[in-house]
Write a structure and sequence with these properties.
Blueprint (H helix, E strand, L loop, with lengths): L1 H7 L13 E6 L2 E7 L8 H8 L10 E6 L11 H8 L3 E6 L9 H8 L3 E4 L3 H7 L1 H9 L3 E8 L4 E3 L16 H13 L2 E4 L1 H7 L14 E5 L18 E5 L9 E5 L6 H11 L4 E4 L3 H9 L5 E6 L8 E2 L6 E8 L2 E7 L4
Parallel strand pairs: 3-4, 4-5, 6-12, 6-13, 8-9, 8-12, 9-10, 10-11
Antiparallel strand pairs: 1-2, 1-3, 7-14, 13-16, 15-16
Helix pairs in contact: 3-4
Length: 342
């Protein structure tokens, strides 16, 4: 199962809104096949694992380990539970039940009714952690929310800028940290900034320092203050602008009208759920980040900490969180936090 979890991670950034799934097939304590869900719309992990087995006759004497319950319905691919029964694999070990309502125990039930011995919940917590985005999406009906910011050693995320300094990013960390940020973007479904960050930093919010697809860009611009010449509006990738105005979209840019009455973040998350957006990076400034923190609407935070001091400026958010890990990135650090009782 640990190997199945390991190979499942290879699908990161390519399978959303599907989950990452890994599968390992064992015969007489020897792994004879393994596979993972490589890309959305293509073969599932169980199919790839079975296809990798050279001697299919061994399958009738094997045990299949899979991180997530095999599907039992026809989606973009046939049910994996049918494939397992077709090859007569007798023993199945499942990491966790699928929270998706069309599966949710039905795959395990089908396997047991077909004569398979099924163990469910093995290393379940690790398998849920692997797919925390997928579980949050289906159980809470919203994307998994990752807050991200960079701060100085003395706790500032920006200087007090003059108008002349707008459009110029204030670098706090280093090149390795920037690469880590771009990798994070490639792993997640969408990324959001507010009006002030878009105006002050003029970010592209694309993946340039890492291999992978750029996330869906989201910007909150209630009164349409932002210039059409900003990098966010270069038409290179899909971009959604949440605004109070009724406007027509154009060439990869969509204007989504919402009501701004203190519940706009919830409305945006509802819209992202309807779009099938599994995860969201909030890369805004102090106002947007604190808006999510103040209503306790977040799951994870990644804080990049540089070695320099600003001594004064815009203070970094303060929040109640559990430190999960810290990684050294040359002369900077990245700390990962989880929301308590998430």
């Amino acid at each position: 199962m640990l190997r199945a979890i390991e190979v499942a991670r290879l699908g990161m950034g390519n399978v959303s809104p599907n989950p990452m799934v890994g599968c390992v097939i064992v015969h007489n304590d020897i792994i004879i096949g393994e596979g993972y869900h490589c890309e959305f719309g293509k073969s599932h992990a169980e199919v790839n694992a079975v296809n990798s087995v050279k001697n299919k006759e061994l399958l009738t004497e094997s045990t299949l380990y899979v991180t997530l319950e095999p599907c039992s319905h026809f989606g973009k691919t046939p049910p994996c539970s049918d494939l397992i029964l077709l090859y007569g694999i007798p023993n199945i070990v499942v990491g966790t039940i699928d929270p998706f309502v069309q599966v949710a125990g039905k795959g395990i039930e089908k396997l047991r009714n077909g004569g398979c011995q099924v163990i469910s919940g093995y290393l379940g917590e690790r398998c849920i952690e692997l797919n925390r985005r997928f579980f949050t999406f289906h159980q809470m009906k919203r994307p998994y929310i990752i807050l991200k910011w960079a701060q100085t050693a003395d706790g500032f995320i920006d200087i007090d800028r003059s108008l002349e300094q707008y459009g110029q990013s204030t670098w706090i960390t280093n090149d390795l940290s920037r690469i880590a940020v771009h990798k994070m973007r490639a792993d997640e479904s969408a990324i959001m900034v507010g009006t002030n960050t878009a105006m002050k930093d003029n970010p592209s919010l694309t993946v340039r320092e890492w291999f992978g697809r750029s996330p869906l860009r989201l910007v909150i611009d209630k009164d349409m203050k932002l210039s059409a010449g900003l990098a966010l509006f270069d038409h290179s990738i899909p971009t959604v602008v949440y605004t109070s105005k009724e406007l027509s979209g154009q060439n990869n840019i969509e204007f989504k009208r919402i009501i701004f009455d203190g519940m706009e973040l919830e409305r945006i998350l509802d819209d992202l759920y309807e779009r099938g957006v599994l995860s969201l990076i909030v890369e805004g400034g102090q106002i947007l980040l604190n808006s999510f923190i103040n209503i306790d609407l977040w799951d994870e935070a990644r804080v990049f900490i540089g070695k320099n001091n600003f001594y004064r400026g815009v203070k970094a958010p303060v929040f109640n969180a559990i430190l999960v890990k810290s990684e050294e990135l040359d002369d900077s650090w990245m700390s990962v936090f989880y929301k308590p009782n998430r």
